[in-house]
Design goal:
Length: 321
């Protein structure tokens, strides 16, 4: 997957999964945590239950498959994390949307699949994966706090520098953001959540604290629509911005997750995303300096210096890439 050879990955998965499926058909199968949920059954004309059992970003990333699944399934039932229910409500193809964290039994269904298995089930390649964005719809507008209303003559950039605690290797130390302080004409807005949101008090650049106003994911989505650019580490926000078709710059550690491939600065999953990487393990400062250089170059080419085009401009996604 890191090499982008999705077809080879699916063949390898088949080799691991086919013995399990054979045993299941003969009634001698005992599920183990490493097994996939899907047993290989076709979806056509069947009631399909999609379980979202991984991270919030994973659910957002693979929600792109729900409408595709609905083209063949008789019914698509999605059990998602409660934080995402408002965001996923009304998504095309989803017949029923349920809270995955309740103790309620699963509704009747004929096929079950975990949302991250959908790429495997559809045998997606880099050329065929459903990459049209946006595939999430946010109708609400962001209500700006009076003290943080953006200046239309400046570039308004959302910033997240820390991932969740389960993998702190994805997080940038706040002091390594210092190269961003050298770029004129930018108003920085923190979308950071969790304990590290408080780090803006000691940040090496001024950052407006939007965090208290973007705690709900649908509120963060509305804020992203109102910003010119989102710069983030590998966290749920990267998927959210990409699924909304917002210009997003993703900063990755050297040994990044499989979904971001290797040695590329774009993503087949999110057309409006640009990727920046550590040149070697632990070197966040060089990655941030690379971001700062590209941001300064971007602003130098604008017809409306120093800011990016307005958030609803049809050109800003291209420029941000």
């Amino acid at each position: 997957m890191l090499a982008g050879a999705f077809e080879d990955a699916w063949r390898e998965t088949d080799l691991m999964e086919c013995p399990r499926r054979l045993a299941e058909r003969h009634g001698v199968f005992t599920p183990q945590p490493h097994h996939l949920v899907w047993n290989g059954q076709p979806f056509r004309d069947r009631r399909v239950l999609v379980r979202c059992e991984h991270g919030l970003g994973d659910t957002i990333m693979f929600a792109r498959y729900f409408p595709l699944l609905a083209q063949s399934a008789r019914e698509v039932i999605v059990k998602a994390q409660p934080q995402l229910l408002a965001l996923l409500t009304g998504m095309p193809g989803v017949t029923r949307l349920l809270n995955a964290w309740t103790a309620d039994p699963d509704p009747p269904h004929e096929v079950a699949i975990e949302c991250m298995e959908l790429a495997y089930a559809f045998r997606s390649t880099r050329a065929t994966l459903p990459a049209r964005v946006p595939y999430l719809n946010v109708e609400r507008s962001f209500v700006w706090p009076n003290e943080y209303k953006p200046d239309p003559l400046r570039s308004n950039v959302g910033l997240l520098w820390a991932a969740s605690d389960w993998d702190t290797r994805r997080s940038v130390p706040i002091n390594d953001l210092v190269p961003l302080a050298q770029i004129p004409g930018v108003t920085w807005y923190s979308l950071q959540q969790g304990a590290r949101a408080a780090e803006i008090r000691s940040a090496p650049l001024p950052i407006e604290p939007l965090s208290p106003h973007t705690q709900k994911i649908e509120a963060a989505a509305a804020a992203m629509r109102a910003l010119d650019l989102i710069i983030t580490v590998d966290t749920m926000a990267a998927h959210l911005a990409g699924a909304l078709a917002r210009p997003v710059w993703l900063i990755l550690r050297h040994e990044a997750d499989w979904r971001w491939l290797r040695e590329v600065d774009s993503s087949p999953w999110y057309p409006t995303m640009r990727i920046f990487r550590q040149p070697e393990p632990g070197n966040w400062r060089a990655a941030i300096e690379d971001v700062a250089r590209h941001l300064a170059d971007l602003f130098s080419r604008q017809q409306r210096p120093p800011g990016l085009p307005p958030a609803d401009s049809s050109t800003h996604c291209t420029l941000a890439l």
